[in-house]
Amino acid sequence: MPPKSSSKKNQASWYHCESCGVHIPSKARDSHEGSCSAISQDEVAPDSEAEYVRSGAIYTRSLQQRNFEVESLKDLAAKYANMLIFVSEGAMQLAQFHIGQHVVVEAPLIAEQPLVRIVWPISEQFLTTVFVSEGDFKLHCTQLRGKFLKISALDPCRLTAAASISLKHLNPTESPLKCGQLQDAIALLKRDMVNRVFCKDSQIHMNFFNKSLTFRLERWQGTVEDALAGLSLDSKPLQFVQVTNVTKLQLIPENSGQQQDKQKFSHRITKSQIGGLDRQLQMVEESMDYALGFRALPAGLRVSRGLLLYGATGCGKSMVLEAMSAVAEERSQGHVQLIRINSGEVYSKFLGETEQKLAAIFERAYNHFPHPTLVLIEDVHNLCPKQDGSDLVKRVSLAFLSLLDQLSSPSQLKGSKTFVLATSSQIEALHPSIRRAGRLDSELELGAPSSQARRDIIRCLIQSLEHQLTEEEVEHVSSISHGYVGADLANLVYAAMLQAQQNPLKLMHLQTALTRIKPSAMREVLIECPNVQWSDIGGQSELRLAMQQAIEWPLLHAEKFQRLGIKPPRGILMFGPPGCSKTMIAKALATESKLNFLSIKGPELFSMWVGESERAVREVFRKARQVAPAIVFFDEIDAIGGERAEGDGSGSGSSVKERVLTQLLTELDGVEALQNVTIVAATNRPDMIDKALLRPGRIDRILYVGLPQSKARREILKIKLRAMPISEEVDMEKLVQMTEGYSGAEIQAVCHEAALRALEQSFDAEQVKWVDFEHALESVPPRTSPELLKLYEDYLKRK
User: Fold this and answer.
1) For residue 104, what are the CA distances in angstroms to 85, 205, 242, 376?
2) Under the cellular component aspect of Gene Ontology, which terms does the record hold (predicted)?
3) Are 177 and 185 in contact (CB under 8 A)?
C-alpha cells in the first residue's frame, strides 16, 4: 500500500498496483494492464511508456525545462538553481525523498553519465514529470529528453569528498585560451563546482568571457578518511565525488601522452644549460628545497618562502625560473604545482576583477597542500610598484601584499608547502613593503657576469654548435667582452653564426660580431668614442706610460700585481692648461685598454630635486661595479669636487654641490669596496678641488699635462699635416719654433686655419703654402696666460 498522503488530493492522484508493486498516476490505471507483467519482471520496462514509482525510485520519460517560478526560490542564484531537480510532492513521498536530498538521474538504456542533483518539491499536478532549470537543461539534460530515466536517492556509501580532481579541456581549438587565462578559468570554475557531485567522465561546462569551455572529469583522489573507509570488505565502490572548498583542481595538459611529455621536457631549460650562475642557482635551489619540503629543515629555524631575483635585463632571471621548475618537478616526481603569474595578464579594466584573479591564483596555490606549489612571478614590480599611480594599482598592491602575508602565517598551514620565486629588472621601482620579512624576504642579485662567468656562458652557447674554437680563443673572447650579460653573449654567438652561415664557427666571426653587438648593461652610459689610438696623440709619451702603468697594467695583469703585493692607484687626476689633450688621452686609454668606459660630465649629476643628485652619483658607481673592470672618467671634476667652504653656513653640507661631493667621497673610499674600477679625472683648476678628494685611497695620483715641448709639437704637426697636401716651402722646424707656447688644440687650429686660408685664395688650390701658415699663426695666437702657468708651477711645488 502506498504511504499515506498529506492530502486527499494526493491519495486520488496515485494508484498502487498489487501485481507489480508500483505506484502509477491514477489516469494511467487503464493503460497499465498491458505493461504490468513486463514491469513485474523487469523494472526498466524498455518497451513500456509507463511512468511509475517503485522501490524508492522514480521512473519517467518526462524531463522538461522549468518555465514556471517557485516562490521560495525566486532569489536563488543561477549557480544553485542549476543544482536542483523539481519533482511533485506525491512522487517525493512515494519514493521517500526528503527536501534537499541528493538524487541520481540516470538513463539505464544509454551510455550517458548519470547526473546528481538536489531534489525540490513542486505542485502535485505534475505527478511523474520532472523539471530542471533552463541553464541545466541546455547544458546537460538535452540528450536525456525523451529517454527512460531512473531517479533514485544517492547512497552515501557511494559518495566521497574529493581531495583533488583532474580535468581535461575538451574544446581547446574551439575556445583557444592562453595558459594564464586557462588557469584563471580553472580557478573560477572551482567556485562554481563547490558542493556539486560528479562521477568519472562527467562533463562540466562554463562560460568564460563569452567563450564556452567544456571539461571532462578524468580522475580524482579522495581524502584520507574515505580511503581508510574504502578498506572495509563490505563497502561499495565509490562512484561519485563531491567538490569541497579544499578540493584542488588540476588541469591535464593537452597531448599529455608519453611522446609529448618527452618532447616537452626536451625543450625545458636545465641547470646544465645555464653558464656562469652556479653559485646563484645553488642558493635558489637550497631556498626552494627547504620551502617545498624537499630538504629537512633544522628544528626551530624559520624558512623563507619568498625569494626575489633582481638584476639588469638579460642576466638570466627567467632562465633560473625555468631551471627551478624543472628541479621542482624532478624532486616531487611530478606532484608539484607550477603557477606562473604574468603581471601583464592579471590586470583587468573591471572593478575588483584583478584582485579576484590574484585571490583565485593564490587560493589554488595554498589549497594544493600537502603537495608543494611553486609560484613564479616575472616583473613583480608591475604588481607592486613603488609609485602608486592610480586607485587600481593601490588596490592590487594591497591585495597582493595581503596574499603574500599568508605564506608565513603562523595561524594556518596554507603556505607550508608554497614557495614564491619572483623577478624584477627594476628593483628601485619595487614597493619597499614587499621586501620585508614574511613576504619576499630573501634577495639575490644577478649582476653582469665576470670574465670567468662569461667563459662558462660561451661554452654553454657553443656546446651544440659546430665550431673550431679552442679554449684559449674562448678565454680571449670572454676577457674582452666586458659588460656583456648572458643575453648579449647569446646575440653575439647568433650574429657570429649568421656570418659563418654553413661554415664552422671561428674566432674571426666572434670578433666581427663584437664590433656590432654592444653590452646592454652599458647602454645608458656607454659613449660612442672616436677610434682614438695612442698614435693619434703627439708627444706625451711619459704621460701615456704613466697612464698605462696606473690603469691598464693593474686591470689587465692583476695576478702580477698581486704576486708583487702592489696596489694600483684608485684614481688619477690630469690637470693642465686647456687644449692639452687631457680628454683625448682618456679616449685613447678607453680604446687601447678595451675596458668599459663611462664618461661623466660634472653638471650632468646635478638636479633640482632633493636627493636626485646623490642618487645619480650612486647609480654611476653601481653601473661601474656592475660592468667592472671599467674606467669612470670625470671631465671638469672641479664642477662637482670643488673645495668646500669653511667657517660659514655653507659648510654644513646643505648645498647640492657639497652633498654630491660627500656622496662622491663615500663611493670612492666607503664601506662598499670599489673593485676593478679606476677613476680618471681631468681639470684646468686643480687648486679648486677639495683636499679630501685628492688624499691617498681616492684620487691618489696626480699627473701634469703641460704645454707641448718642441719634440711634442713636432709630433703633433706631423700627425695633423700627414693628411694635408703642403707645399715644399713649408718649413716644419720653423713651425715648431713659431708655435712655442701653443697647446695641442691651438696647433690643430693653426693647421685648420691655414687650410681654410688656402681655400679662400682659390677653390682650385691643391696645396697649403707657407703664407697660409703665417696668416694662421697671426689669427690663432696662444691663449694660455702666464698667470695660469704660474698657478700650475706653484701647485706642483705644494702637492
Assistant:
1) 10, 19, 13, 42
2) cytoplasm
3) yes
With CA atoms as reference, report the closest residue to 304 among 427, 435, 447, 446: 435
β-bridge partners, 308: 422, 443
Query: Which CATH number is 465's domain given?
Result: 1.10.8.60
Is residue 104 within 8 Å of residue 115, measured between CB atoms? yes
- Phi, psi for 118 (deg, rounded to 5): -100, 125
> Which pTM does this prediction carry?
0.52
Rounded Cα gap, residues 369 and 62, in angstroms:
45
Q: What is the pLDDT of residues 651-701, one digit of tens each?
A: 444 578 888 888 888 888 765 667 778 888 888 888 888 888 888 878 888
Return all residues near 346 (Cβ < 8 A) that are at least 6 apart: 354, 357, 358, 383, 396
Residue 35 grid cell: 505493461
Domain assignment present for 90: yes
Q: What is the dihedral of CA 581, 583, 584, 589, to 10 degrees?
A: 120
pLDDT above 90 for 308: yes
Cα–Cα dist 618/641, whole Å: 15
Containing structural domain, residue 458: 451-522
Give yes or no: residues 409 and 431 share one domain.
yes
For 396-433, give the secondary structure using H, E and C: HHHHHHHHHHHHHCCCCCCCCCEEEEEEECCHHHECHH
| Nearest one of 246, 245, 186, 182 to 217, comparing CA atoms | 186
C-alpha cell at 574: 690630469
- 127 and 65 share a domain? yes
Q: Name 423's bridge partners.
A: 309
Between CA 87 and CA 570 the distance in angstroms is: 91
Q: Read off φ and ψ for residue 516, nearest 5 degrees.
A: -110, -30
Q: Is 356 in contact with 350 (CB distance < 8 Å)?
A: no
Q: Indicate whether 341 and 256 sit together in one domain.
A: no
Does one domain contain both 20 and 55? yes
**How many domains are contained in the chain?**
6
pLDDT tens across 368-393, in order? 777 888 999 988 888 888 876 677 88
Rounded Cα gap, residues 548 and 552, in angstroms: 5
Q: In this structure, is residue 634 part of a structural domain?
A: yes
Helix (H, G, I), strand (E, B) or coil at 707: coil
Q: Has residue 795 been placed in a domain?
A: no
Do both 426 and 413 map to the same domain?
Answer: yes
659 in any annotated domain:
yes
